[in-house]
Amino acid sequence: LVMAVANSFMTLQHYELALKYYLMLEGCASNNDLISVKIARCYSALKRSAAAIQFYYRALHARENDIDSRLTLASLLIEENREDEALALLSPPPNSALLNETDVNRSQPWWLNVKVKLKLSHIYRTKGMLEAYVEEVYPIVHESLTTDSMHQKVKQRKRLTENELLERVKVLGDR
């Protein structure tokens, strides 16, 4: 019930009230990671970046593959001029090659997500790290162009009926 009230306040953009209810739930709920994300969103909406960053980190500790939270946290870090921290947050873990091979059943790791790669490339570009920027962007652009060229269809021309052809011959003959 408390969660429903907090969610309602959040929907109505009454972030201060929503925050109050989410903070009540913080320690006692079973889905603490979700509550941490909601608290972080409230703090972010209230322009209290330091607290929002703290709660996003807490949420990511529990939900490592939450791409939206990771991207939002990176944006907050960039706003706070903590680009190096944002780079570390979005960069693949050191043992990422090992993780890719061993976990076949799992879905795509967060560091291979296109949104993460684009955000990372944006940070590289703004920091003037052009080689790293190209290294991130090139595979995305290449895949996009390859996909587009493979799905390109030759537009079929509409076949004209015999009557339409005869009409066109008459029109041209009248000239």
UniProtKB/TrEMBL annotation:
What Gene3D superfamilies does this protein's entry cite?
Answer: Tetratricopeptide repeat domain
The protein's superkingdom reads Eukaryota
Q: Name one GO biological process term.
A: transcription by RNA polymerase III
Can you list the GO cellular component terms from the UniProt entry? transcription factor TFIIIC complex
Among InterPro entries, the record links this protein to:
Tfc4/TFIIIC-102/Sfc4 (IPR039340), TPR-like_helical_dom_sf (IPR011990)
- Matches recorded under Pfam families: TPR_19
- PANTHER family in the cross-refs: GENERAL TRANSCRIPTION FACTOR 3C POLYPEPTIDE 3, TRANSCRIPTION INITIATION FACTOR IIIC TFIIIC , POLYPEPTIDE 3-RELATED
Protein's UniProt name: Uncharacterized protein
Organism in which the protein naturally occurs: Opuntia streptacantha
Query: Species lineage, top-down?
Result: Eukaryota, Viridiplantae, Streptophyta, Embryophyta, Tracheophyta
